[in-house]
Sequence to fold (152 residues):
Amino acid sequence: MFTVADMMTPHPHTLTSAHTLADAKKLMEEKGIHHVPVTDKDNHLIGLVSQRDILSAQESSLEQIHQSSFISALDIPLEQCMHRDLSNVEPHAGLKEAAVYMQKHKIGCLPVLHQNKLVGIITDSDFVAIAINLLEIQEEVEPTEQGDANFY
Fold:
């Protein structure tokens, strides 16, 4: 049986609750990621911010003008906007069970905790990569005559 530890991203990029949405946006853009766990100094998971959160903050505020000064929603500390009620998974959990849980609850990632400390993250993108690998294996076993599909 494959476990979450087999496919998770170990030691994910994290921020603290004192960082801002702007910090999270910059980290996501630099690293090509969509989820950032928020941890304390002892690497305990205390929250999570997603790319969707950043987009929502930018849209909802549409950059307010207050007393002739420019205030950006991205200046909000993560402490004020991170998700705190999080699901998580242990490294030895089954990969299929994690995928089913994520699909059932419509979540894009599961932080991976061991002894209450963040050790990894598994995302919907990881499961897409798994699906691609399985499809490639299937093609090796059962070659098709059609070649590549047409995309429009």
Notes: Residues 7 and 104 are 20 Å apart (CA to CA).
